[in-house]
Amino acid sequence: MPQELNYLKETPSQTAGPFVHIGLAPGAAGFDIYRTELGWDIAGPNAKGDRIRIEGLVIDGTGNPLKDVLIEAWQANADGIYAHPEHAGEVEAGFRGWGRVITDFETGEWGFDTVKPGLVPGRSGMTMAPHINLWIVARGINVGLNTRLYFSDEERANAADPVINLVEWESRRQTLIAQRSERDGQAVYRFDIRLQGENETVFFDI
Amino acid sequence: MVKPGEFYQRDRKWHPPAYAQNYKTSTSRSPKHPLISLQNSMSEITGPVFGHDDVDPIDRDLLSNFAKPGEGPIGERIILHGRVLDENGRPVPNTLVEIWQANAGGRYRHKKDTYLAPIDPNFGGCGRSITDENGYYYFRTVKPGAYPWRNWVNTWRPAHVHFSIFGTAFAQRLITQCYFQGDPLIRLCPIVQAIPDPEAIEQLVATLDMNATIPLDTIAYKFDIVLRGRRSTLFENRLEGN
Prior knowledge:
The structure holds two protein chains of two kinds. Chain A is mainly β. Chain A has a single domain (20-194), classed as Protocatechuate 3,4-Dioxygenase, subunit A, CATH 2.60.130. Helices cover 9% and strands 29% of the residues of chain A. Chain A has helices at residues 20-24, 26-29, 155-159, 170-173, and strands at 51-56, 58-59, 70-75, 98-102, 110-115, 120-121, 127-128, 131-137, 145-151, 177-183, 186-190, 193-194, 204-205. Chain A has an eight-stranded mixed β-sheet with strand order 4-3-8-9-10-11-1-5. A two-stranded parallel ribbon of chain A has the order 2-12. In chain A, strands 6-7 form a two-stranded antiparallel sheet. The longest helix of chain A is centred in the first third of the chain and has 5 residues, at 20-24. The two termini of chain A are 33 Å apart. By secondary structure, chain B is mostly beta strands. Chain B has a single domain (48-226), classed as Aromatic compound dioxygenase (Protocatechuate 3,4-Dioxygenase, subunit A, Sandwich), CATH 2.60.130.10. Chain B contains two helices and twelve strands. The chains are: A mainly beta, B mainly beta. Strand 13 of chain A pairs parallel with strand 1 (36-37) of chain B, so a sheet runs across the interface. Chain B: It is an enzyme of class 1 (oxidoreductase).
């Protein structure tokens, strides 16, 4: 027998189920229990940069929106700094860069307010276009799905982005790009996530 | 001190596949295209940081965090405890652990749950805690009940507690479920059995822990959680710009 390696195995994932709100958003489940629920203010009051809104649906393979999905967002600030000890640099007081989003139980629409992130350092000296990392869990999703949201008004940065360019099929790259419009003078980006079927969103194994 | 590198890739054969035939809901919610494999960048090796200020001590006590003064939920009083480790066997300290569950009758406090078992007026069904410097966490709660769900006509979930764990990086983010030793429904459950390897299923089964039981008071189950580990060698691809 050669030596044992003694690594542990990662705990297997299980679906978040239809009642994920009880644990992660109890107010939405219909009751008030914690002093503060976590994740409802991604950028905080002091964040620099453009205030934006992101909206969308998560759509299943039959074309219907999911009404029981929960999304987590993870992003850098407007300077491209993540609020994390391994990323050198300061973020604004109150900027966590992480948020939780749930859908309307009737329509499946979701949305959140944040600031637009900046360019982020990539691997090997490359630069990544501004993006928000998303993680999607729901009943029927056995392992949380990772994708990235890029911005339609960052064409040049997107064209040079090393992750977008990893997607071999150019037609599929569009699924990662949120489309900008304006509403009452504020930038609103539309990002529908298609779990399956025509224009299935690109998901990543990170 | 060697700067830690990338996370070990997730063993997708250890996890359930996106599409599991017997778990019907997964049929239309599973991507058909393969996932695109990404090497870790700053976006994956970072993740939200939580502190002890984010949670209150009572948040870990489901026996009292929703109960009226002097009252408590109906059911078997349990301590659910363990450590959060990484694949290298190192503890993961200061990480947020959140749980949610049905009450002892198998009913969730959720506006969309319509099961006929009653809501327990003294039970919310959620808790959260930050691991200590050794990666240790504990909750006090009641053992959840089994409940029926619409998959086949006669399908029952084994008693389970949902767990959400963060680790230090978005790449480690995990949601799973904890089952209880000896439950005959585990082997019948399409959600559990979506996991192909029986050894992986065993990893989700909490063990009766008599040493942690409080005599004449509360019975204990141990549930350790393993998050992805990361390399720590000097010979790295360049993760960051230079």
